[in-house]
Amino acid sequence: MTANEFLDNRAKAVYETWGKHLPGKIAFFSSETSTTNADIPLIRLNGVDDSYPPQKKSFMMLKYMAEHFGNHFEYFMRADDDLYVRTDKLELFLRSVNSSNPRFIGQTGQGNKEEFGHLGLKNDENFCMGGPGVIMSRQTLLMVAPHVRDCLKNLHSTHEDVEVGRCVRKYANIPCTWSYEMQNILYHNKSRNVAYTGPLKQQEVHRAITLHPIKNHTLLYRLHSYIQGLDIRINEGELVRLVRELARVGQETRVSLPRLDDHNAGITMSHLGMELSLQKWAPSREEEMKVWDFISRAAFQSGATNPRHKITSSMNEGLKDITLEFMEIINRVSKERGRIIDFKDVLYGYVRWQPTYALEYILDMFLLYKKYRGEKMVVPVRRHAYMQIPLGPLYIRERREEDFLEAVQTTSGVRQLVEVVVKNGLTEMSKFNYKIPPSEPPSTTMKPKKIHFIVPLSGRFKTFQRFMEDFRQVCLVREENVVLVVVSFRPEVGEQDTREDVEALISSLQFDYPNSAMTVLQANSSFARALALELGASQCEDNSLMFFVDVDMTFSSATLDRIRLHTIKGQQIYYPVVFSEYDPEFSRKISSTDTYDHTLINEDVGYWRSFGFGIVSMYKSELKSVGGLDTSIMGWGGEDVDLYEKVLKSGIQIFRAADPDLIHVFHRVNCDHHTLDTSQFNMCQGTRYSTYGAAHVLVKTLLENPNILAYKRANP
Prior knowledge:
Keywords: Glycoprotein, Golgi apparatus, Membrane, Signal-anchor, Transferase, Transmembrane, Transmembrane helix. By secondary structure, the chain is of the alpha+beta class. It is built from 22 helices and 28 strands. The chain has a 7-stranded antiparallel beta sheet with strand order 14-13-12-15-16-17-19. A 5-stranded mixed beta sheet has the order 22-21-20-23-27, with helices on both faces. A 4-stranded mixed beta sheet has the order 24-28-25-26. Strand 20 (451-457), helix 13 and strand 21 (482-489) form a beta-alpha-beta unit. Helix 2 (55-69) crosses helix 4 and helix 2 packs across helix 6. It is elongated and about 110 Å long.
């Protein structure tokens, strides 16, 4: 239904966008005197003008449809010219409904607060709101059409949709559909003139069949282009599903299926047939390991110059894309279950880029579970979701430079294929399928897994005191399920022997917290970190969860949660990337002995130690299966890289990500060439130099203190 003034803009835009894709016929009904230059199927209704409200136009339109098309179609949809229709979704929806019965489908209305009780409707009567579209089955239309003139003579309001509803109820004896879902299926945006002028990446745009109102006809073309992009992604998703199905059938039947790659055309697709998993790629060398980025209110990226920064617009765009896809899948069965789940926020998550396979997400999301059938309720829930945006197919072709520049100018964007795998917990990572988890909150009655802290120590009693204060506040006061094993070595020549002080401190804490489990092992030898960790591990059972940590570290209760979450017996080892502080004399302009805030994370005060592998959590059984630590390595360094390489070769999955609560507190490193072999000495020197300060801070220091450069020139 349209008017003469809208034929060359709104009506034309409808016909050129969704109108040509309708699975049936479309016609534009206007006044008797309407004229247009647009090539549209226009029907001029005799004796009808464009006056508002359009009661006569609406009823005569129904009469015309019944008389001319009544026996040719199963359904009839009355729509305004400011409506957009997802025609493919409309067809699927109507094919799921029995068309042989009288149907009057739309978004139910009873009037707003001012109108309620003044529309001639009883408390249990309703009408279908005209804006988002009204659908009638053939039987309904044929029952109502003969009586339209009678309905026009008995109008009770100025609203044509109210009067059509009254006429349908009187002569077809059916109301508009009483359904909570219809407000999302036939969607009306209450912002009216500014509707759909902003970002289209909205939940209602993705899940609705009709979108209303679109007052500016140019926005209809914009919306149609966006919807076509969504359709491309749906088709690409179906392509991936078929490729995976082919691969699965080939494996089960042991039939060698033809490869999907076309190397002559430069097309690769076979990787799309790989099983759904976060373990598609098994690195064999340290440099091949892909690190997860941690995101919460900020982004923590070990490879970034700024280690803690605001989540970028591109990352936000990706998160919005993937969460929209997730919500579409999780709500696909809403009708059957009588509930809908709304997305509220991402509490935290991990993102990793696998260039040859996929962009991968692990998100912890806050959702609202809304039950509208039976006993109505709204319950907040949290859900883990494991998601992948697979890449491909990859197209390779040679092009001249001028062709390439032209393509860059004309390419509108990169098509993405998104598929979402929803899981109930990290322990199920190796059994990926499309099962949607139940929408009830998980049980919180289970006692958290016990963590065994294994801490090597040689001297450095003040540092140990600070570590134990953290341990007291995080673990002892909170009664965390932990065990502490300190492996204490005899001091080096010339150093103060503080072993008795260590035991006294532990004894004092045990007296204050009698239920705690803390042990000090004395090692009567020179310090060797590998030996310390092996001695500590010897105190644990095979199914014990161990956390190898140094006294230089600070940590929080969130660290314990991540250790339990990311360390999976027999499947996964957690190698967190820790944040390492620079020398505070450079980064904070204070003495290294002063007290300062260790929770501050930015590019001025520290860096992500992406090359460090000393802090790790694993089960004792995994340590044994990879061959344990090399206890022949004496002193500092080397043992962590050796263990990491053993884990890589074992095939056990490594989860590596930045942990914003694991902070390596600055301390000056003493690199003694007499006690360290060459590789250890070089590693020690590298660590020492990297902890002075950020490059831009050091440059500024040199520029502000030219006497330093003068001294170096005089003393090369």
